[in-house]
Amino acid sequence: MNTGLVLSGGGARGAAHIGAIKALEEFGVFPTHISGTSAGAIIGALYAAGVPWTEMLDFFKNISIFQTARYAHNKPGFINSAKFYNDLKAYLPMDDFSALKKPLFITAANVIDGSLKVFSKGQLIKPIIASASFPGVFTPTEINGKYYIDGGTLNNFPVEPLQKDCDKIIGVYVNPLKKISITDLKHSYSVVERAYKIKVASESMLKFPNCDLVISPEELINYGTFDMNHIDAIFNLGYTATKKALEENNNVFA
Fold first, then answer.
1. pTM
2. Residue 190 parent element (H or E)
3. How many CA atoms lie within 13 A of 180 on its CB side?
4. Cα angle value 157/163/165 (rounded, 5°)
């Protein structure tokens, strides 16, 4: 039986994906196909390469996103996305999808023509970086003469690539929409940000019925996209939520 695993974007909240993977393995569920966006693309690639969850967690904890050596100069973004290549190369020495142990699909958005690109073959590391290039913070990534940004811009929960080959699909969604009041919208940019979050969440949740099991810990609303100081807490939320979901739905994978 082929089991697909969909990992959404979510920045630092992506550490919950690692907790979910730990719980799945403890339950005896080992996904055969992976699809991911942004933080989910990073975790998905490491998982597809056979990196154990303990090392994934170390990677997430130790990656210094905002160190000065990564700052962009004369480029559209604060952080130069290309500076993350060597960090990933240490875990993915053969920079090619064909070196992975499981089929992997990564989404990214073409920032010039607005199209969605699903990467599944050829060079691996640049598509991962592109998929995780949060708009306005990280510079676009050039791949074969085209420029890409965060896959979550167009598809933050990429179930579609798995539907053809998988009998069961598990979704891990780490971007729950936080409840707010009008007093929380103090500036024009906070309204723009809220609108973007509503769009991403609504499009993603419409696809939940396409999964046999969805894990989406609501407590993740307490952590921000760049909240790198609470990785352990986020990891534990993913682990406990997945464990609970598997216990309550053990007939799905019987």
1. 0.92
2. helix 188-205
3. 17
4. 130
- What sign for the dihedral angle of Cα 87, 85, 141, 169? negative
Task: Please name the helix (run of DSSP H) or strand (run of DSSP E) that holds residue 148, with its range, or none.
Answer: strand 146-150
145 to 27, 96, 110, 142: CA distances (angstroms): 44, 18, 11, 6
Task: Specify the residue for token string 């969605």.
Answer: 116
- In one letter, which amino acid is 204? S
For CA atoms 103, 109, 110, 111, give the dihedral sign.
negative
The rounded distance, in Å, linking the Cα atoms of 4 and 16 is 17
Instruction: Provide the b/e sequence for 90-100 (b: ≥16 CB within 10 Å).
Output: ebbeeeebeeb
Write the pLDDT tens digit of every residue in 72-118. 566 665 566 677 888 899 999 999 999 999 999 999 999 999 999 99
**Alpha carbons 92 and 195: distance in angstroms, whole number:** 36
Give the tens place of pLDDT for each residue, 144-181.
999 999 998 899 999 999 999 999 999 999 988 778 78
From CA 177, how far away is CA 169, in angstroms rounded?
Answer: 22
Helix (H) and strand (E) counts for the chain? 8, 8
Indicate the Cα dihedral angle 181, 184, 185, 186, nearest 10°: 140
Token digits for 187? 């500036």
Determine the Cα–Cα distance for residues 167 and 162; give it in Å rounded to an integer.
Answer: 9
Are 138 and 109 within 8 A, CB to CB?
no
